[in-house]
Write a structure and sequence with these properties.
Blueprint: H1 2-16, H2 21-32, E1 42-45, E2 51-57, E3 63-67, E4 72-75, E5 80-82
Antiparallel strand pairs: 1-2, 1-5, 2-3, 3-4
Helix pairs in contact: 1-2
Length: 85
């Protein structure tokens, strides 16, 4: 559901003229990327407010990751994106 909301927001910002085509398509591509994370992968939240590293993938598919600011967090794979920075 989170990715759907983000995709709708990207589309609305593009239609309103706030985003150019390249930014909108780049965002959509990132949202459509398969969420297949492995320990050690760099990740960020959808809005980019937190970044970190995947610690482990639980049996039920949830992701345990360590934020760069410290502390371990638990997330659904669809709420994270790969971080290329």
């Amino acid at each position: 559901m989170t990715r759907r909301r983000e995709a709708a927001s990207l589309g609305a910002h593009y239609i309103a003229g706030v985003l150019d085509r390249e930014a909108m398509t780049g965002g959509m591509t990132a949202l459509c990327e398969a969420a297949d994370f492995q320990p050690g992968d760099r990740v960020r939240t959808l809005r980019g407010s937190a970044r970190g590293v995947v610690v482990r993938v639980m049996d039920d598919g949830r992701i345990v990751w360590r934020a760069d600011t410290g502390g371990e967090l638990l997330a659904l794979p669809e709420s994270l994106l790969r971080d290329g920075s």
